[in-house]
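for the writeup, i need someone to sanity check this before i put it in the appendix. the sequnce is what the collaborator sent (i think, or maybe the updated version? ugh). structure was predicted straight from it, no edits. if anything looks off just tell me and ill rerun, i have time this weekend
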Amino acid sequence: MDDLIAFVTARLDEYEAAAKKTLRSLAWMIDNDVQPSISPSLAEEWITRSAHALREVEADRAILVLLGQDVTDGRERDYDATGMLEQVVRIRAAVWNGHPGYRPEWKP
């Protein structure tokens, strides 16, 4: 499971970096009154999609945090819940099943 979590974390880092790069580039163009080579509606779509990507990264990282917790509210972990969280991580990891680091045994 540690390899799966490391794989998902690395993909999230890449996804986050790409979204932030897009937002920084578009913000720079706006701040410097540079006309982008794309239509304003496409630029707006990129901003919307990049912001959404950052929210997805945040949500997926929250799932990984839940999976990594050994004790919740001072109580022993519910291992049925752990199994479900592992399945959620496998489902989210499958988004990157075309990546060379993805392993077939992680398939949900």
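The two ends are 13 Å apart (CA to CA). The mean pLDDT is 86.
thx in advance!!
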